[in-house]
């Protein structure tokens, strides 16, 4: 299994996963043209993508979904509540391309098993995904205010993670957002801070874990270097050997990560 985080941040999110038999996307929160460009950057084409998995209805996750579905004819998977919440936001998608995929289920596509799981976020019914190929697992865990004990059990000891490090708490508190928005982000239905993301990663990682990507950084309330240093320091304080036992990678809202074997 190979993975590239094509884009991750408050402005748009897209992740690419491939196996010998399948090539899929999680979310398409950028314009269709930008997603095409990012795919080109990693030496891939959207013509070969055979499924698109949607996590929830927020615009930074669905902006390009309709365009890609209509242009390339790929099936789009989301749960019923998310489809209802999306409504007409992405235009019309042919009914035969709209697939229902509910939380807590596993979809098998030949050599790829896709496991959906619910998260705590202020959306209709947000869910993220863990991908399994042979004995390897890659889990995406962003857009959540916290990780439940049940989720820890589901996602424990994957080979790679995309973990949320959305904001620095002090930058958020001192920033220009309205107090109501600050409360939403800090709540159990908001986003993981740098510190929370580090602690979540520590709880999840195991002997198999070799790659952790830090994702969904806020443009206004975080900095890439700050997120990386904060997470690394917290891990080192727990005697976890960052960039030795596993690699800690940054993501970007405009630049795709290298297509990497999981």
TrEMBL record:
SUPFAM superfamilies referenced in this protein's UniProt entry, alphabetically: Metallo-hydrolase/oxidoreductase
PANTHER family the UniProt entry points to: EXODEOXYRIBONUCLEASE WALJ, METALLO-HYDROLASE YYCJ-RELATED
Keywords: Hydrolase
Organism: Periweissella cryptocerci
UniProt key word Hydrolase: yes
A Pfam family hit: Lactamase_B_2
Protein name (Swiss-Prot/TrEMBL): MBL fold metallo-hydrolase
Any one GO molecular function term: hydrolase activity
Regions annotated as coiled coil: none
Domain Metallo-beta-lactamase: 11-167
Cross-referenced InterPro entries: Metallo-B-lactamas, RibonucZ/Hydroxyglut_hydro, WalJ/YycJ, WalJ/YycJ-like
Domain of life: Bacteria
């Amino acid at each position: 299994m190979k993975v590239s985080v094509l884009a991750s941040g408050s402005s748009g999110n897209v992740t690419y996963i491939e196996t010998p038999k399948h090539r899929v996307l999680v979310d398409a929160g950028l314009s269709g043209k930008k997603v095409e460009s990012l795919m080109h950057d990693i030496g891939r084409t959207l013509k070969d993508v055979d499924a698109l998995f949607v996590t929830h209805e927020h615009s930074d996750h669905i902006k390009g979904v309709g365009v890609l579905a209509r242009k390339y004819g790929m099936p789009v998977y989301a749960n019923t509540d998310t489809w209802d919440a999306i409504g007409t936001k992405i235009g019309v998608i042919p009914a035969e391309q709209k697939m229902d995929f509910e939380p807590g289920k596993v979809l098998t596509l030949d050599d790829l098993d896709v496991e959906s799981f619910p998260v705590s976020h202020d959306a209709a019914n947000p869910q993220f995904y863990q991908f399994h190929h042979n004995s390897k697992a890659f889990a995406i865990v962003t857009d959540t205010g916290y990780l439940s004990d049940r989720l820890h059990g589901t996602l424990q000891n994957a080979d790679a993670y995309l973990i949320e490090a959305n904001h620095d708490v002090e930058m958020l508190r001192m920033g220009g957002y309205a107090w109501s928005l600050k409360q939403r982000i800090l709540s159990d239905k908001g986003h993981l801070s740098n510190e929370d993301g580090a602690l979540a990663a520590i709880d999840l990682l195991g002997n198999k874990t070799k790659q952790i990507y830090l994702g969904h950084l806020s443009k206004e309330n975080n900095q890439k270097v700050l997120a990386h240093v904060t997470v690394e320091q917290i891990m080192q304080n727990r005697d976890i050997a960052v960039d030795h036992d596993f690699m800690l990678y940054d993501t970007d809202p405009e630049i795709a990560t290298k297509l990497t074997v999981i």
